[in-house]
């Protein structure tokens, strides 16, 4: 159920990286002057997925791993809304993996914000698809969402941020939201958001993150070069952060424009019976 509710006090552990994300979302929305009633947060299942309860906007608590389908539905119902889907690495990259891959191809102008803490925080610290080998008995190599995003040749915005660097997070979020509001398509931001209770990676990540924009040859419009740069950075033991893909041109590729060229979703469509009767008769005739 979509609800516009008063924010409630957060249930997160003190120091959780998700607080940085919450603050950055509020700040980016304020900087872009997005009215609260035009912003919809669709939360996944997990600690991170409760983010919509802590900010006074329209909120929807989705099914586990199905937040993208529900966020795309909200956008297509009313394309004037700014829609942010927000959840965890378990929600997005395990049960939600099928939807994750297709979201890049569908390319609806929504922002998907994954708070990656490399664990299932809410269920008390089991390994997730991004956990390193050895974490809580994990024997599988970790999955990298940025490399996956770069492997799909669609005109998306792709970036990774770190909760320990709020200034950059706000800038990147603003760019992603603007990308959506210009109907340019899907924006994916993975935030490295430590779970201080079950996997406190603040110190490690502070040492390991490397902002790719500081490197020579950095060009986020060149997908191939960025794939190589990310891979090489990871092979050198660092974690790449920054904007990893930004389409060269400003084409408006959002799914909502392809399906609703006049930008009127069902929410604002004229459902008056008489006005729609000729179209209805035409449909019936085509079926005869
Ligand atoms: C269908 C279903 N399967 C499993 C669960 C149990 N469950 C709740 S949250 C969660 C994973 C949470 O991990 P993540 O998405 O990384 O969020 P975090 O708590 O780390 O922010 C799981 C497996 C569930 N709620 N529903
Ligand atoms: S368990 Fe971890 S992810 Fe969940 S609120 Fe606490 S610190 Fe954050
Ligand atoms: Mg998690």
Provide the list of bound ligands, each named once. Answer: thiamine diphosphate, iron/sulfur cluster, magnesium ion
Number of domains: 1
Total strands: the figure is: 9
Helix content: 25-40%
* Gyration radius, in Å: 20 Å
- Provide the CATH architecture: 3-Layer(aba) Sandwich
Q: What is the residue-mean pLDDT, rounded to a whole number? A: 95
Strand order of the largest sheet: 1-3-2-4-5-7-6-9-8
Low-confidence stretches: none
CATH-level-4 superfamily name: Thiamin diphosphate (ThDP)-binding fold, Pyr/PP domains
How would the global form be characterised? globular
CATH topology type: Rossmann fold
Number of helices: 10
Structural class category: alpha/beta
Under CATH at level 1, the class stands as Alpha Beta
The major sheet is characterized as: 9 strands, mixed
- What letter string, H or E per element, gives the SSE order? EHEEHEHHEHEHEHEHEHH
Q: N- to C-terminal separation?
A: 38 Å
Strand content: 15-25%
Please supply descriptive tags for the structure shown above.
binds thiamine diphosphate, alpha/beta, Rossmann fold, 288 residues, binds magnesium ion, binds iron/sulfur cluster, nine-stranded mixed β-sheet, 9 strands
Summarize this entry quickly:
This protein has 288 residues and is of the alpha/beta class. It has helices at 18-31, 67-77, 89-95, 97-106, 145-150, 166-181, 202-208, 223-235, 255-259, 273-287, and strands at residues 3-4, 39-43, 58-61, 82-88, 111-116, 157-162, 187-192, 209-211, 239-245.
């Amino acid at each position: 159920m979509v609800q516009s509710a008063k924010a409630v006090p957060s249930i997160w552990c003190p120091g959780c990286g998700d607080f940085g994300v919450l603050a950055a979302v509020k700040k980016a929305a304020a900087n872009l002057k997005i009215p609260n009633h035009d912003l919809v947060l669709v939360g996944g299942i997990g600690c991170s997925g409760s983010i919509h309860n802590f900010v006074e906007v329209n909120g929807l608590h989705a099914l586990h791993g199905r937040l993208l389908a529900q966020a795309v539905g909200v956008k297509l119902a009313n394309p004037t809304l700014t829609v942010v889907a927000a959840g965890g690495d378990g929600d997005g990259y395990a049960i939600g993996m099928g939807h994750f891959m297709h979201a890049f191809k569908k390319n609806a102008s929504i922002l998907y914000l994954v708070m990656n803490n490399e664990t299932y925080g809410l269920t008390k610290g089991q390994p997730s698809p991004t956990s390193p080998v050895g974490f809580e008995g994990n024997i599988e190599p970790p999955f990298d969402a940025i490399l996956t995003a770069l492997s799909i040749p669609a005109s998306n915005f792709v970036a990774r941020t770190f909760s320990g660097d709020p200034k950059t997070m706000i800038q990147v979020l603003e760019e992603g939201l603007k990308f959506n509001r210009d109907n340019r398509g899907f924006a994916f931001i993975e935030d490295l958001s430590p779970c201080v209770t079950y996997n406190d990676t603040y110190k490690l990540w502070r040492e390991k993150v490397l902002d790719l924009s500081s490197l020579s040859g950095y060009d986020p419009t060149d997908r191939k070069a960025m794939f190589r740069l990310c891979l090489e950075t990871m092979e050198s033991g660092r974690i790449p952060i920054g904007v990893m893909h930004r389409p060269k041109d400003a084409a408006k590729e959002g799914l909502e424009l392809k399906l609703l060229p006049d930008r009127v979703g069902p929410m604002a469509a004229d459902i008056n019976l008489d006005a729609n009767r000729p179209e209805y008769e035409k449909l019936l005739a085509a079926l005869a």
